[in-house]
Amino acid sequence: MSAYDPEKEGAKMSFAKDMSYIDYLSLDPILGSQKMQSNAHDEMLFIIQHQTSELWMRLALHELSTARDKLIQGDYPPVFKMLTRVARIFEQLNNAWDVLRTMTPSEYTEFRDDLGASSGFQSHQYRLIEFILGNRNRAMMKVHEHRGELHHMLGQELTKKSLYHVALDCLGQELGQTFPKDVYRLDQPHQANAQVMDAWTQVYRDPSAYWTLYELAEKLVDLEDYFRRWRFNHVTTVERIIGFKRGTGGTSGVKYLRKMLEVELFPELWNMRGHL
């Protein structure tokens, strides 16, 4: 049997003058961006784990910002698609912890000191995702002051309504209600509000009458569900690898991450379930 020749079936084989797969995806800079700081074998895993996570977060931000714009316009179908996609992005991020957990504490120790003070705590994209979803804390911006453009971008986000704020606008308009101003605090974490919870409860007691809002609520809950799983697996992975040591960025490590597990992005959507 002769060797397979793809060119005989019409496959393009010469790219001296045309854009190739490598060109389109800019693979040269991407695959050349793993700058090892040590000779430890497992540092490559650590770098790629975090670089790919940042790429997935880049896509999540792309989807969330557009979903918010579409929701403001009342264009619900693409919003539902985008929120579903973001939930699946966090499922992908969640699965990546399984790969990182193949690294033992001994292997991490070989290069941990070479990280210096760098830490995932300093991810501006993760912070921006939190801000868009409504977990807002201006104090968390200070770590980005050395990068003026990133600090400004985060500050700009705090001048806009979060995705959940926009969802509450839709809820209030449909039910003919106006929520208190403190529900829309732009630079503080969202706090559960009884009037908002009552409004969502009304939707859940009669889904057929408020189907669009009902579906929007479930998409938000689904997103937060996957987001919580990602956070939980983050805690478990860190504890498995470094125990209760302080994080490289100076946080309390596992203790800090466990505290983050208590954060609820859309508290009324969770709390109202006990009132149905």
Plain-language structure description:
Helix content is 57%, strand content 0%. The protein is mainly alpha-helical and 276 residues long. It contains 12 helices and no strands. Helix 4 (76-100) runs parallel beside helix 10 (211-242) and helix 10 packs antiparallel against helix 11 (254-260). It has a single domain (40-275), classed as Methane Monooxygenase Hydroxylase, Chain G, domain 1 (Up-down Bundle). It has helices spanning 21-24, 27-31, 43-72, 76-100, 105-109, 124-133, 148-157, 163-175, 194-205, 211-242, 254-260, 267-271.
Notable traits:
single chain, 276 residues, mainly alpha, Methane Monooxygenase Hydroxylase, Chain G, domain 1, 12 helices, 0% strand, globular
Quaternary state of the chains: single chain
Number of folding domains? 1
Q: How many beta-strand segments?
A: 0
Principal-axes geometry comes out as: globular
**Biggest sheet, in brief?**
none
Task: Note the gap between the termini.
Answer: 69 Å
How much is the average pLDDT?
Answer: 92
Approximately how much beta-strand content do the residues carry?
under 5%
CATH fold-level topology = Methane Monooxygenase Hydroxylase, Chain G, domain 1
CATH architecture heading: Up-down Bundle
Q: Segments where pLDDT lies below 50 for 5+ residues?
A: none
The helix-strand sequence is HHHHHHHHHHHH
State the helical fraction. 55-70%
Radius of gyration from the CA trace? 22 Å
- In the CATH hierarchy, what is the class? Mainly Alpha
Q: Structural class, from secondary structure content? A: mainly alpha
- How many helices does DSSP assign? 12
